[in-house]
From TrEMBL:
Positions with a binding annotation for FAD: 134, 162, 184-186, 198, 223-224
UniProt name for this protein: proline dehydrogenase
Enzyme class: oxidoreductase
Cofactor: how and how many bound: Binds 1 FAD per subunit.
Disulfide bond is among the record's keywords: no
UniProt record, GO biological process: L-proline catabolic process to L-glutamate
Pathway, per record: Amino-acid degradation; L-proline degradation into L-glutamate; L-glutamate from L-proline: step 1/2
């Protein structure tokens, strides 16, 4: 009961525009620096280099939410382009993750698509891969439409499927052959569109993992959940699925020991590394997922 109240509270504040804007001026607070790699690209690239040295691959995300005009969306597009160039210049092993609302999806579909074309042109030139993060349900269909449009020209782009959505299994079937990240889902969704109970979200997670791997498609399993990780390890062994066909993904600052244990066991592990000053919404969603993460916030609050 308490967990549900705190989850709803953190998801509610994560969506508050005023707090998101205000937080940019506070600098990292409440321990956010433990889960956000830095406020600028140089610092983030240094962290990525350290992770690469431990055998971990990365995907870099320039944080940004609530983009409401074309100038902001163009600035975000330029930042992703610059991020791709920096990754290539510094020669770290990192993909890039983007959010379509940051690139203008709420402003105009064609404008957002054009921005993604610009990003993918550079990603192609620098031999890199871009994952479109999946946001809340109201953006799901449009995000998949943009992916479909982009894949007419590029194969170095994929997206995320959330197992809490009823539509997830059908989406997986429609996206055979696409490099996908599979997750449970981080937003507050209504029972009209999404499972609410953990056991149903978990069992749908197992179903979509099986479905995508069985179709021979490359699959990123993004979770911190030991039970899912152990299940995947066991199931791929039974099915004789090669370790080259999938990877585990975890968020920066979470389950560091598990990340390195998996690398030692020969699995590919990719760390999602967020950076930038727009940390508030991202951090609040992490607190919503796991009340224990509040210890970051409490430690951070007292150490300020
Ligand atoms: P969950 O939170 O369900 O926890 C299950 C169990 O795992 C816990 O009970 C505990 O035993 C263990 N556990 C979890 N966290 C732990 C920790 N820190 N320490 C110790 N044990 C822990 N969502 C989305 O909607 N769109 C997206 O694009 C993405 N992208 C994304 C990328 C990556 C790389 C990751 C890892 C996650 C996302 N997500 C996401 C978030 C995702 O949807 C989900 O909300 C979180 O990963 C939380 O779910 P988990 O599967 O990690 O475990």
């Amino acid at each position: 009961m308490l967990a549900k109240v705190s989850k709803n509270f953190f998801l509610f504040v994560s969506n508050n525009k005023w707090l998101n804007h205000a937080a940019k001026k506070w600098g990292f607070s409440f321990g956010a620096s433990q889960v956000v790699a830095g406020d600028n690209i140089e610092v983030a690239l240094k962290k990525i280099k350290e992770l690469n040295d431990k055998g971990l691959l990365c995907t870099l995300d320039h944080l940004g939410e609530f983009v409401s005009n074309k100038e902001e969306a163009l600035a975000a597009t330029r930042s992703v382009v610059q991020t791709l160039k920096s990754i290539s210049d510094v020669k770290v092993k990192s993909h890039v993750s983007v959010k379509l609302t940051q690139l203008g999806l709420d402003i105009d579909y064609q404008f957002c698509l054009k921005n993604m074309h610009e990003i993918l042109a550079i990603a192609t030139r620098t031999n890199n891969f871009v994952t479109i993060d999946m946001e809340d349900y109201s953006h799901c269909q449009q995000s998949l439409d943009i992916l479909r449009d982009l894949r007419k020209d590029y194969d170095n782009v994929g997206t995320v499927i959330q197992s809490y959505l009823y539509r997830a299994v059908q989406d997986i079937k429609d996206l055979q052959g696409v490099h996908l990240r599979l997750v449970k889902g981080a937003y507050k969704e209504s029972p009209e569109v999404a499972y609410q109970e953990k056991n149903r979200i978990d069992s749908n997670f197992r179903i979509i993992i099986q479905e995508h791997l069985s179709s021979g498609s490359y699959t990123a399993i993004a979770t911190h959940d030991d039970q899912i990780v152990d299940y995947v390890k066991q199931w791929v062994k039974e099915q004789e699925i090669s370790k080259d066909q999938f990877e585990f993904q975890m968020l920066y600052g979470f389950r560091n020991q598990l990340q390195s244990d998996l690398v030692k066991e020969g699995y590919t592990v990719r760390v999602y590394v967020p950076f930038g000053t727009d940390w508030f919404g991202y951090f609040m969603r992490r607190l919503a997922e796991r009340p224990q993460n509040i210890s970051f916030a409490i430690k951070g609050f007292f150490s300020k």
